[in-house]
Every structure is written in structure tokens, then in C-alpha cells.
Fold this sequence. Notes:
Structural class: alpha/beta
Largest sheet: 5 strands, mixed
Oligomer: single chain
Radius of gyration: 22 Å
Strand content: 15-25%
Shape: globular
Helix content: 25-40%
Distance between the termini: 59 Å
CATH architecture of the largest domain: 3-Layer(aba) Sandwich
Amino acid sequence: xxxxxxxxxxxxxxxxxxxxxxxxxxxxxxxxxxxxxxxxxxxxxxxxxxxxxxxxxxxxxxxxxxxxxxxxxxxxxxxxxxxxxxxxxxxxxxxxxxxxxxxxxxxxxxxxxxxxxxxxxxxxxxxxxxxxxxxxxxxxxxxxxxxxxxxxxxxxxxxxxxxxxxxxxxxxxxxxxxxxxxxxxxxxxxxxxxxxxxxxxxxxxxxxxxxxxxxxxxxxxxxxxxxxxxxxxxxxxxxxxxxxxxxxxxxxxxxxxxxxxxxxxxxxxxxxxxxxxxxxxxxxxxxxxxxxxxxxxxxxxxxxx
Length: 305
């Protein structure tokens, strides 16, 4: 009996689910929407079931479609890993390397290293990703990144990642000078803080459980896409929250924020460069070169200010 499910079809389903529509998915895959529609309808006919509910504005997976995609993503990851491994074995150099960079960090130090990297003549194509919080680990776990710069805290259990400690990242509580909490005596208590809206950058994890930090039970939350938007929300006074100390102090020096002592401060968090654990003989030359250069970076160089 022929196999009805192809990797191409799984890629299409994954893209539609992530982008929310056939048109957006087609654009991301550099194809026309009609080609994606044909692929999905053909697969639904072969399997004898519906994968997407098309009744609403957004294309949503049916229960069967969601289960297919959940298991199918493991196949996509495995195929991607196998493809890269075979290519690396043939040449000793990776054809593609994807690098996830935390939204806390500035791209400039990474771009400076890439400037030197391209002078080495590896011929490797590089893709830069922006990840938020636990998404830095999820990018490695899912295979969409080969190196993650700024992975926070503990790695997912049983993940098999190698790490290089960048340093310990301290977070401080900051509010706008015109925010009601600015006038209260320090240290601020949890009962003071919970009465006001907090802002959180949305964890970009797709498969791992999203991580949260610094939010009190029952507190109103404004969710934003990244740390720079979170900073702007706090400067505007629409919300409050924790920021990396260098970022908060830089804004405080400009008169945009006040750093306030709290009765229950956030613990200092280790921050890593991480990659999949493998023996040096299994790692391509381009990957080895990049890891050596990235490992020389410091938190101070990387942090957005």
C-alpha cells in the first residue's frame, strides 16, 4: 500500500498552522495559495478526513489535523537533521546553519562575527532567528536552530544540549516616573505590585511549554512580542515589570524609568550559548568556527541598551 503522507504535505500543514492562513503560508513557502490548497485537499481525500476547519476567518486544524501535525513535526525535524548530517559528511562543512538570538540581545555583535565568518570561505548559508525567553531552547529542540545565543535558565530535561555560560543576568523592577508605584516607599511589596498591570514578552516556544516569570497570581497582564516592546510599554507607564539591569539603568539614566527595590526580587538567572551535544568529529568546520567566536562574547557586549 503506497504511503499517502509526504514531507512536503507536512511542511504545508505546518506553515498554514503557524501563519494562520493559506495565503500567508504560501508566501512563506514561496508558492501560490492554489498549490497549497491542492496539496491539502489531495491529502484529505487520500486519508478520508478533514485536516482544517475552513468555516472561520482563520484556518484552524481539526482534532485529527492537530494530531497529524504534532507527530508530523517530529518527522520534519528528523528529516531536516538527516539532510544536514548527510551534507556535512559529504563535505565536512554545513550547508546551512540557523542561529537563534534572544530578544534581550543586540544583533550587532553577532553580525560582526558573521562578517569575519564570511571571509573564511565556508560557503555556509546562515539564517538568524529572533526568539523570546524559552523559545531559545525550543528553537534547538525543534531543530529550527543549530545554535542558540541567550538560552535562559535550565535546559529542557533530557535534551542533550551542550552549553557555554555567558554569565548571570540580573533583572530589576522598573516603572515610569509618572506611574503610581513610583511614589511609593521601598521596598515595594507584592500586594503593592499586584494592583497594577504587568507587561510580559510572549515566549516564542512552539513545542515546549511556554515559560513565564515575574507575574503575580491575579495580576492583569499586557503581552507584547519582544523585550524592546516591553521596555517601551514600561516607559509609557501603561504597565510595569522586570528588565535586565543594564537595560533598565540605561533608561533610568535618560529619565525614562525608575528602578525600584522590591521585597521579593527575581533571582539572578544564568544565560547560555547552547547547541546540540555532539562529538567534535561529528561537528562541521563552520559550526566549530562559529561556536569558538560566539563563546568569546560577553553579556555586556550582547545586551541591548
